[in-house]
Amino acid sequence: MTDFAQLVVAKYNYWIYITLMMIGLYAIISKNNLVKKILGMNIFQTAIILFYVSIGAKKGATIPILEHGHGPAHGAGSHVVHAADYMNPLPHVLMLTAIVVGVATLGVALALALKVYRHYHTLEEDEILAQIRKK
Amino acid sequence: MSTQYPALVVVVPLLSAFLISAAGWANKRLCFPIAVVALAISTYSCFGLLVRVLNEGVVVYRWAGWDPPWGIAYYVDHLNALVLTVVAVVSLINLVATKKSIDEEFPDKLGPFYSLYVLMVTGCLGIVATGDAFNLYVLLEISALTGYGLLAMGSKGRAPLSTLNYLYMGTIGACFYLLGIGYLYIVTGSLNMVDIAGILPSLYQSKAVMAAFIICMVGVWLKMALFPLHAWLPNAYTYAPSAASSLIAPLATKVMIYVMIRLILTVFTPEFAFTTLSVSNAVVWLAVIAIVVGAVLALQERSLKKMLTYVIVAEVGYMVGGAWLGNSAGMTGAILHIVNDALMTLCVFLAVGNIVYKAKGHCFEDLQGLFRKMPFTMGGFVIGALSIIGVPPTCGFFSKWYLISGAIKAGQYHFMAALLFSSLVCVVLFFRIIEIGYYEPFSEEHGHGHGHHQEPSMEEAPLSMVVPLLIVAAGLVVVGLYTGDIVEHIIRFAIPKGLA
To answer: A88, B305, B407, B465: which could join B416 in a potential S-S bond, CB 3.0 to 4.6 Å?
Structure first.
């Protein structure tokens, strides 16, 4: 295997998020239909959410819940908690907020697209620009 | 009470948004007073906070008693306290000044409009107050999403379309910021700005840290409309309702400049930004291009409001360039210009709001004879214009002075040349407006030869719109006269000692 292929396989999560991000960016820049642009924007946001989720995951780790409870009754100290055994929950929790933000952004964007459609009776950007130029 | 100021600044407007939406259903006339009371409490807390910071130094507020770096903490130092006060004052004055135009434009949407208004202000205040990098992202999106709502309420068709363009760019910008914070989190394991700053110095050679810094910067530049990432700004602000554009134009870009300065000064260190990463020359060049292009594009506009939006693009170049000069005079100029530019943008946009309210348009043809019809509005506009040009004793002169002396100290003469060039262009821009407003229409008296030449009667905007405008205009002069004190007592402490 070449070095480059090894680099791709070893860090595949980063390559996936970058690919998704670029797909989203491409759609925002080059698509003519407003809804397609909005979907591209959403793919862009999702790519970053996936990036965060992937950095919290670890190989062979489990969900971050301590099974043996806590307090002296359960014999504290008998289990030593290794951080490497558990996934990092913080990036995942952060992404709950980011998902909410993404949904809100999508909602606002679609509402705006609806307003545009009601006024110009089309969602194609070139047709809208032609109408604006005619005035 | 005074220990809770950092919380009150943000929480009171946030909760009032719910009250306003409820009041919108019950009795529409309650919306405005609730918004005014909420923002007045917020402004009072900002001033209280500023006084506390001046007396005691940095104020740390632990939300719900959780210690940083686990909980979210607000760190208010001289830089935040100053910007917080400006944001609160600008939003309160604009709220009072635009009541009449809001009543006229959206008689049946008062509840939604005022709740979006206070939420937008909440977002801006939160961005400035917070000491947590992820919290900043959330507040960024709060202020951006509500801002889209406000901007899209303008002219049918054009406003939603240009706001949609703003939304794509704004979302990409915020996502880039989030991505940069993700990189920082990978290398430091922390989201607290002060905590990150403590961990980073040993990692400055790491590629991930450099990538984090650059990605964050690109995101922030997109949100502040630094050329060539400015394309969303002019249309979004031009087609917005006057009340929304005079709120968002002074605040949104200036708050993002604050974020940039905060990232440079606190999260990373000036040595890292200016020395380790040798990009500051390139950024200053970018700012120079932004200033020149903004000024030239402003020159070709035939609409007052759109012309002013390009002036904002040029002003963003001033502040970015000043911050990246890498010396304390430039940084002082940039911070001072955040304050001054917020006030002078508010001043000219309020004047445009009054003109639109009476003349029903903001094209150059609508401005004819306005000095006779609206002498007070135009008086306020002229003071704002003089400040943007940079005529003493208005405040615009002093921040430009600091920026230019910073440019000379850093040996960046092209930045100085760009500042002087844009000042000259501003002279042309604003004197053209004054000429149209003062001397036109002249053709009627001479061309038609009618015996009676009637003086156009005065049709000034309502008092509630003119008085706040004149207060802001007077404020420009007062801030200008007290520049020495502001720099000596506040901004001097905001700049780290290491910066030469």
So the answer is: B407
